[in-house]
């Protein structure tokens, strides 16, 4: 049966990528359908109950700056907030929130159900409708056909998913959910490069069985951070404590004793796991000389006793899991409510995608999230938003958009994936960005909200608040630049004891703010009482302190921009460029970069090869 109405965009999968994708397309005015296995699991956190962290919060704030839902849902469900790297530079500062899973999911569902132009339907998608290499819709498990010329697949860990606990395994998309077998088989028929990855999760523990007197408490920060520029601290739920404990030599001995029944070490699992979020058995194996590993204990929510012990993800057999958990301080009598497990799943080489996240082989078919080899809610959400907005633009015959590497972590993420592909689950770090000082979490709105408004992603209320903040920053910056303090004046005396070297001449307040020992609060009211919002003060202080570095980064970006604009013709044959080594030719032919700058970023493409390509392109005219 054909569903009677036609859609502009269909999104398959209601996880973190899918929800941002369908919200983005609908915000842009497209008739959008979200199809997912189960309405009850929309926005579900498959693994740890936390959002943000280093590199990841930058993505969350960029999603927010573009009108997305993840940061607002985090504020609605956040039960502990902290600023990581608070004492380090602003480039690497990051917000992390523990979330009550139920509240987070409810906030996402609320956003979905109240979004105009968006329809939700619960059903597995088993097949795609493709005509002449152009997607036309999808077919669900019960044979219902939905039609659209743009389809975004965000199937997470579900394609061909296999769950492993010890040497036992079964098909599954995640614990308690079915896998997507029919769709996986269908996708394997297309000329897309497919491979297997794996990820894992720890056993969950009943708090009633834990001895908290043995654990170290960790509370959130005060004043409490907010995740969204639209967030309201006063509306965040009650805040709770997390705890820290450690593994010990006995734990490690138990794990080593179980490795012969580990699916990872006995060769049952072939997929590659996340390097930066390894299982406890991986850690014991890889860092054999370490006698202890930290376990960070996160509450799963306000209305449950379940705890998430971050750091002991495992797929060892259940008897080993029980023994290893009970060998840890505070967990001596712990009751496991859900076993840890690993999951193997299909992912597709993102080098087969365009920068819009549309596949190169099937027109209108987009991939976003874990299906592209990434790991993490934030990475998935950011890709989802990009795929959704580009699907919406395609529906309107508009050109695709993707931020550059110097505009957003989202630009870095997509560029890394498309240029280099990935052989292991990819997660975001600040170290992946070369322009860290420009891509701070505090200025995500300044970098992206105007573009978001132009794309149709940012609503009136957010836009108005953004404009007010931008004006307030400009006004206050101008005031600080125009307000002067004389050496030896009453105002200068107020700085005594705060500044390292005395003032010897007249200084503007903005210049004073450049001194590392002075903060906005020290200088702002030297001449008259002024009151600005926290976020405005923060923005001005960072701009003042880092303006030298920021303008140097900007100059470098402008220099490299020339390469960003040097494009290869679509049919360019890299094999015909004389002087390139066969290895470089092969790498370029596989990755098919569209600009010289992207060619330059492919590992193995040397500066000499870039010069040859530049000369060749110039000769071709
Ligand atoms: P998901 O959140 O998985 O959402 C996929 C959605 O698609 C689901 O709603 C599903 O029902 C739906 N779906 C799939 N196929 C179909 C279909 N054919 N028809 C209809 N609906 C369909 N991340 C980390 O950063 N660190 C970790 O340590 C970590 N460990 C993990 C451990 C496990 C066991 C799992 C399952 C995930 C783990 N993750 C981890 C990954 C994290 O959950 C994902 O990165 C993130 O959820 C990916 O978001 P997504 O939107 O791509 O997919």
From TrEMBL:
UniProt subcellular location: Cytoplasm
Binding site for NAD(+): 273-287
Chief location bin: cytoplasm
Cofactor: FAD
SMART domains to which the protein is assigned, alphabetical: GIDA_assoc_3 (SM01228)
Entry annotated with the keyword Iron-sulfur: no
Membrane-traversing stretches: none
Pfam families (alphabetical): GIDA (PF01134), GIDA_C_1st (PF21680), SAM_GIDA_C (PF13932)
Domain tRNA uridine 5-carboxymethylaminomethyl modification enzyme C-terminal subdomain positions: 544-615
Binding site for FAD: 13-18
Keywords (A to Z) from UniProt: Cytoplasm, FAD, Flavoprotein, NAD, tRNA processing
InterPro entries xrefs: FAD/NAD-bd_sf (IPR036188), GIDA_C_N (IPR049312), MnmG (IPR004416), MnmG-rel (IPR002218), MnmG-rel_CS (IPR020595), MnmG_C (IPR026904), MnmG_C_subdom (IPR047001), MnmG_C_subdom_sf (IPR044920)
Position of the signal peptide: none
Family: Belongs to the MnmG family.
Task of the protein: NAD-binding protein involved in the addition of a carboxymethylaminomethyl (cmnm) group at the wobble position (U34) of certain tRNAs, forming tRNA-cmnm(5)s(2)U34.
Subunit description: Homodimer. Heterotetramer of two MnmE and two MnmG subunits.
Name used for this protein in its record: tRNA uridine 5-carboxymethylaminomethyl modification enzyme MnmG
Origin species: Gilvimarinus algae
Gene (UniProt): mnmG
């Amino acid at each position: 049966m054909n569903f009677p109405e036609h859609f502009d965009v269909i999104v398959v999968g209601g996880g973190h990528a899918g929800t941002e994708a369908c919200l983005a397309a609908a915000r842009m005015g497209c008739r959008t359908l979200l199809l997912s296995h189960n309405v009850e699991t929309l926005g579900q956190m498959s693994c740890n109950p936390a959002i943000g962290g280093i590199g990841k919060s930058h993505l969350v704030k960029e999603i927010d700056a573009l009108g997305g839902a993840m940061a607002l849902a985090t504020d609605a469900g956040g039960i502990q907030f902290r600023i990581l790297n608070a004492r380090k530079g602003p480039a690497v500062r990051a917000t992390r929130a523990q979330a009550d899973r139920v509240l987070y999911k409810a906030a996402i569902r609320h956003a979905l159900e109240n979004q105009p132009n968006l329809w939700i339907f619960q059903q597995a998608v088993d097949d795609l409708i493709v005509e002449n290499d152009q997607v036309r819709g999808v077919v669900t498990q019960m044979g219902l056909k939905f039609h659209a010329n743009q389809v975004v697949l965000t199937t997470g860990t579900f394609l061909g998913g296999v769950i492993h606990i010890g040497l036992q395994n079964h098909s599954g998309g995640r614990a308690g959910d079915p896998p997507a077998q029919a769709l996986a088989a269908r996708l394997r028929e297309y000329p897309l490069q497919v491979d297997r990855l794996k990820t894992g999760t720890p056993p969950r523990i009943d708090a009633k069985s834990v001895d908290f007197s043995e654990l170290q408490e960790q509370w959130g920060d005060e004043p409490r951070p907010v995740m969204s520029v639209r967030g309201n601290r006063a509306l965040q739920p009650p805040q709770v404590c997390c705890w820290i404990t450690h593994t010990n030599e006995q734990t490690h001995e138990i794990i080593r004793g179980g490795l012969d029944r580990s699916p990872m070490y006995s060769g049952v699992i072939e997929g590659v796991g996340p390097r930066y979020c390894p299982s406890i058995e991986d850690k014991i194996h890889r860092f054999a000389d370490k006698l202890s590993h930290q376990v960070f204990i996160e509450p799963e929510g306000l209305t449950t006793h379940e705890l998430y012990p971050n750091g002991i993800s495992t797929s060892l057999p259940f008897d080993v899991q029980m023994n290893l958990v009970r060998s840890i301080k505070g967990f001596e009598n712990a009751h496991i409510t859900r076993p840890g497990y690993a999951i193997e799943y299909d992912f597709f080489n993102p080098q087969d995608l365009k920068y819009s996240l549309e596949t190169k082989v099937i027109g209108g078919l987009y991939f976003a999230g874990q299906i592209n080899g990434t790991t993490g809610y934030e990475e998935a959400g950011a890709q989802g938003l990009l795929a959704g907005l580009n699907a919406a633009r395609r529906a309107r015959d508009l050109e695709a958009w993707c931020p550059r590497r110097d505009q957003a972590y989202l630009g870095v993420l997509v560029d890394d994936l498309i240029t280099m592909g990935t052989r292991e689950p990819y997660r975001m770090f600040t170290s992946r960005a070369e322009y860290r000082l420009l891509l701070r979490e505090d200025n995500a709105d300044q970098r992206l909200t105007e573009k978001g408004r132009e794309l149709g992603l940012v609503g009136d209320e957010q836009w108005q608040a953004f404009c007010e903040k931008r004006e307030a920053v400009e006004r206050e910056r101008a005031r600080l630049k125009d307000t002067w303090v004389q050496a030896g004046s009453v105002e200068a005396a107020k700085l005594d004891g705060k500044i390292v070297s005395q003032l010897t001449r007249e200084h503007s307040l903005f210049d004073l703010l450049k001194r590392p020992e002075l903060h906005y609060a020290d200088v702002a009211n030297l001449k008259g009482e002024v009151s600005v919002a926290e976020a405005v003060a923060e923005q001005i202080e960072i701009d003042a302190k880092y303006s030298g570095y920021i303008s140097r980064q900007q100059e470098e970006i402008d220099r490299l921009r020339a390469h960003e604009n040097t494009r290869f013709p679509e049919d360019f044959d890299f094999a015909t460029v004389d002087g390139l080594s066969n290895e470089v030719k092969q790498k370029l032919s596989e990755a098919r970069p569209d600009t010289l700058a992207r060619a330059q970023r492919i590992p193995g493409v040397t500066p000499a090869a870039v010069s040859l390509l530049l000369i060749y392109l110039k000769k071709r005219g």
